[in-house]
Specification:
The protein has 311 residues and is mostly beta strands. Helices cover 7% and strands 43% of the residues. It has a 4-stranded antiparallel beta sheet. The protein has a 4-stranded antiparallel beta sheet with strand order 4-5-6-7, with no helix packed on it.
């Protein structure tokens, strides 16, 4: 069938079609049952590249890279900001994996469309260590330790305008998680876990502390929800913990309680498979991905792995 007069042709070459399919999340390319049975996608970051691996099953899964991004791939990000993304440290899927939130300790955050690699949002954030979508078209960022006076805080932006809307002091801010069921933003600092209300999406943004619990030790690092439970995973430099959001109790993690330097932890929402990264030697990064359910390890030689999130 020919296109109607005056309309552009929608004909795609085989190469274009394959590139488009590769840029889509697995859930959009396969039925949920087929995607789960064949491969699972994992977003990984730590250096100047964020990439996605399609992983097979088993203790030593086969892997292939299906997507990657560097700051220069997004023409919206000015050239003088590219170097700020040289040490990416969080990479969270949003909108069903169609977009990815990226933070970098180099001093920036971005929201990137997976298919086009274009950045619909970007901003400078001192020593950014995590980023999170909020209701009402807002984005929260954790600015960690800095001597410049612009770090050690939680900051909220309006995504459409990149305008800073609110902030609150949080020493060594490292982790963020929006809790839709409870209507709060959880924020992990160097020695404390807090809950904030942020104001309704249609009204003014106001950060109000509603809960706070001191960590058993300093060095708060990763903060993630355990799917299907009221628990949060919390890591510090020396140990790992579970926090029950209903009981408001912090307890040692049942498996990784005594593990040191756990940089990231992620539980697959359907299969329950766990992936975590533990820094190696004196480095802040690792070359290995560690799995549980089933147990296994995958080495990526030459990589600087810091965070891994199931897509």
């Amino acid at each position: 069938m020919k296109p109607e007069k005056g309309l552009p042709s929608m004909t795609m070459t085989r190469r274009d079609a394959l590139q488009t399919m590769a840029a889509l999340p697995l859930s959009a390319r396969l039925s949920p049952g087929a995607a789960q049975a064949r491969e699972a996608e994992l977003i990984v970051c730590g250096w100047d590249e964020v990439f996605i691996l399609a992983l097979g099953e088993g203790a030593a899964p086969a892997q292939r890279q299906v997507w990657s991004w560097r700051a220069a791939d997004s023409p919206e990000i000015p050239a003088d900001m590219h170097a700020l993304f040289r040490t990416t440290d969080d990479c969270k899927p949003v909108d069903g994996g169609r977009r990815i939130l990226i933070s970098s300790s180099g001093g920036a955050i971005a929201l990137v469309d997976r298919e086009s690699r274009r950045a619909s949002f970007f901003a400078r954030v001192t020593n950014a260590h995590s980023v999170e979508m909020l209701p009402g078209g807002r984005i929260a960022a954790a600015a960690s330790v800095s001597t410049a006076g612009t770090g050690d805080r939680l900051v909220i932006f309006e995504a459409a305008t990149r305008q800073e809307l609110a902030s609150d002091a949080l020493r060594s801010a490292h982790g963020l998680l929006w809790d839709d069921a409870r209507g709060v933003l959880w924020a992990l600092g160097g020695d404390v876990l807090r809950a904030y209300t942020v104001g309704s999406g249609g009204g003014p943004t106001r950060l109000a502390r509603t809960f706070e619990i001191a960590l058993p030790e300093k060095g708060g690092h990763d903060l993630v929800a355990i799917p299907g439970t009221s628990r949060l995973f919390v890591s510090t430099v020396r140990r790992c913990f579970s926090f029950d959001r209903d009981r408001r109790e912090l307890s040692p993690h049942d498996v990784l309680g005594e593990r040191q330097n756990i940089k990231s932890y992620s539980v697959h929402p359907r299969t329950g498979r766990i992936v975590y990264i533990q820094s190696e030697g004196e480095n802040w990064w690792a070359e290995h991905l560690h799995f549980q359910r089933p147990d296994g390890t995958l080495r990526l030689p030459g990589e600087h792995l810091y965070k891994a999130r199931w897509a």
